[in-house]
Amino acid sequence: MRVVKIFNLNNVISIKDFQKKDINFILDEAENLERVARSEERSDELAGKVLGMMFFEPSTRTRLSFETAIKRLGGNSVGFAGSNISSVSKGENIADTSKMFEAYSDALVIRHDLEGVARFIADIVDVPVINAGDGAGQHPTQTLLDLYTMKREFDKINGLNVALIGDLKYGRTVHSLAYALGMFGVEMSFVSPNELRMSNEVRHDLKKNKFKFHETNNLRDIIDDVDVLYVTRIQKERFPDEEEYSKIKGAYFIDLDLINGKDLIVMHPLPRVDEISHDVDNTKYNKYFKQAFYGVPIRMAILKNII
Ligand code: CP
After folding, report:
1. 259 CA to centre of ligand 1 in angstroms
2. Which of 76, 170, 260, 272 has the maximum number of C-beta atoms within 10 A of its C-beta?
3. Domain CATH code at residue 195
């Protein structure tokens, strides 16, 4: 019998490499894997497989949820978090480091502060490569778990009205997410200070694909019309000038006074610094911790289909 492979991507580098059917396939797979992700069922589908984790930039959720995902599927992981504990600190280049990971593992997950590094590595190794965030570029697996959260909350993605708020210039999560939401026919509002507008490249891409969005710097313009407030941190580490960051930090603040009585949910890729008041945490509006958990079934679905 001929096996028809539904998911044909060899690497997960950019959400732009996905078609809508690929995204829907991963979301369905994740739903099937949720009981395993919650440890209510066991799986050994990836027994004997090793996931290589190259994290040159800090991470809590992405790194730990990938590690949990491979372990819940019966596999294991090797790797480092922080280039100071690998031989990169002795001067080894990233190409040589990647060739070592290729020899030791069945797939590589890489986070790096330079845009394009994941694609560069995918071109030089023969195992699948997953981009876990490349500078201000892309964060495709985050986008998949963001979409999954919306689907689980609303039972649909098409037709939602989503506001992306905060650092739209440097935030890689919103660069990937805007593109995917466009594919699903979502109405998007981009809420940011002028200095942190969505990048020209992303806006150009969205317009070229006739994806609908509008821009404002006033949260109150959109608050009554949205289903999702997708809040992001202002990315201090990517500002060339710390004084510029100081002028903009704290530009948006979501608290109960703002959202009480509204029919919406609050999402955030996390980490949060000062964008969402802690008084939102124990309310029905908070979906950001659930969203972080959904990283496990989504990454299980990716690993199962790519390794
Ligand atoms: N959302 C996200 O990428 O979080 P981490 O930086 O903790 O991985």
Report:
1. 25
2. 170
3. 3.40.50.1370
Concatenating the DSSP letter of every residue in 121-147 gives HHHH-SS-EEEEEETTS--HHHHHHHH
**Contact in structure between 140 and 131 (CB atoms under 8 Å):** yes
Is 61 noted as a catalytic residue in this protein?
yes
Residues 157 and 194 in one domain: yes
299 is catalytic: no
What would the pLDDT profile of 151-169 be if each residue is shown by its tens digit? 999 999 999 999 999 999 9
Q: Which of 61, 148, 237 to mutate to test the pocket of ligand 1 (most atoms within 8 A of CB)?
A: 61
What domain range is 116 assigned to?
A: 15-137+294-306
Whether 10 is in a domain gets the answer no
- Mutation test of ligand 1: which of 53, 56, 57, 59 has the most ligand atoms closer than 8 Å to its C-beta? 59
Q: Is 283 a catalytic residue?
A: no
Task: Please tell me the pTM assigned to this model.
Answer: 0.95
pLDDT tens for residues 20-44? 999 999 999 999 999 999 999 999 9
CA nearest to 33, candidates 77, 78, 70: 70
